[in-house]
Design a protein that fits this description.
Length: 130
């Protein structure tokens, strides 16, 4: 019998895991769950998706650095113009503590804005066109 395929999930190191879990919990519309320790939080997403947020070990700290990986949150524009939907959504996310990295822009596929979360991790908001 073949063992079940492993379920992928995202892991994010954080200086303040509880605060970052609250930020992403609001974006996902879900309550963060306490993980294996007070410095570990889990967010369950749609389907089998999940985000694990933890404080790295003091013996093995995780340096900050900009890589090619970013969390992306997407929603459809519906009947409204994608850039308008993005601006409305962006106001909410900025109020939660995100920082703009690039200004919002219209693209052929919809509208997008690049941000940094409260700890500087790359974040993309994407509103798909109709």
């Amino acid at each position: 019998m073949t063992p079940p395929a492993p379920a992928p999930f995202l892991v994010l190191a954080a200086d303040d895991p509880e605060r970052l879990a609250a930020f992403y919990g609001t974006l996902l519309g879900t309550d963060p769950l306490q993980g294996f320790s007070p410095s570990h939080w889990r967010l369950l997403g749609p389907g089998d998706g999940r985000l694990e947020i933890y404080a790295p070990s003091r013996q093995r700290p995780r340096p900050r650095g900009e890589g090619r990986l970013a969390l992306c949150f997407s929603r459809p524009a519906g009947e409204a113009p994608p850039l308008q939907v993005l601006h409305d959504w962006l106001a909410v996310v900025l109020a939660l503590g995100a920082v703009p990295v690039e200004p919002p822009r219209q693209e052929p596929f919809g509208a997008e804005a690049w941000l940094a979360d409260p700890e500087g991790n790359r974040l993309l908001l994407l509103v798909s066109g109709g």
